[in-house]
Design a protein that fits this description.
It is a single chain. The chain is built from 4 helices and 12 strands, in the order αββββαβαβββαββββ. A 10-stranded antiparallel sheet has the order 1-4-5-6-7-8-9-12-2-3. The chain has a two-stranded antiparallel sheet with strand order 10-11. A hairpin with a 2-residue loop joins strand 10 and strand 11. The longest helix is centred in the N-terminal third of the chain and has 16 residues.
């Protein structure tokens, strides 16, 4: 009886400490996010008294690596977005957003997120996993630690995936909030107040063969 309970405890402990994709690939995989068809996107959203402001960029680069058998303890990654690529649909507003009064693209050209730690990783389908990641978010010359939940989808290479990119694909989706004041950015754009809290959404796909 004790041996059975002991075995069950070991299996339970292993299940809670290891997060393993059930896919064809084994070992370490490195995914690069560089596709140029405009389908990888990051958006940001803010409310304002007169109108809500939505921004968009498809200029996202990055790298994610992990061991398929233990994602939680091996996951590393970094994503980078040029400030000059952010578009809101109004040229004048884009110039102000990228200018010295706001994000100052000349002095601080990139927004960067680097994964530092994974608090948890939970497989909910054979090829889908939710990860609670902690990382450094850098914007406007300021770096702050943030925590975000990320959904990762691993797609083995197939005839269908080849129409998007060669190799195995990794889909990454995340939504999180930042506070402008944390990055020394005033919550005012073109003379109108915007929300202190900005919602950011990342939806991208990378390949291990590019």
């Amino acid at each position: 009886m004790k041996s059975i309970l002991g075995t069950m405890f070991v299996l339970l402990f292993a299940a809670t400490t290891l997060a393993q994709f059930k896919v064809i690939a084994t070992g370490e995989q490195i995914f690069k996010f560089t596709e140029d068809r405009g389908r990888n996107q990051a958006t940001f959203f803010s409310t304002a008294p007169l109108e809500s402001i939505s921004g968009l960029t498809s200029d996202i680069t990055g790298t994610v690596s992990f061991n398929v058998a233990d994602v939680k303890n091996s996951l590393k990654g970094e994503f980078r977005i040029p400030v000059a690529s952010l578009k809101t649909g109004i040229d004048t507003r884009d110039e102000h957003l990228q200018g010295e009064g706001w994000l100052n693209a000349s002095n601080y050209p990139d927004i960067v997120f680097t994964i530092k730690e994974v608090k948890s990783a939970n497989l909910f389908e054979d090829n889908k996993m939710t990860v609670k990641a902690v990382g450094d978010f850098t914007m406007h010359g300021v770096t702050k630690e943030i925590e975000t939940e990320v959904t990762m989808t691993y797609l083995d290479e197939s005839e269908a995936t080849k129409t998007r990119l060669p190799g195995d694909l990794l889909g990454v989706y995340s939504k999180f909030n930042i506070r402008l004041s944390d990055f020394n950015v005033k919550n005012e754009l073109l003379g109108s107040k915007v929300a202190e809290v900005i919602e950011i959404t990342l939806s991208i796909v990378g390949s291990n063969k590019i």
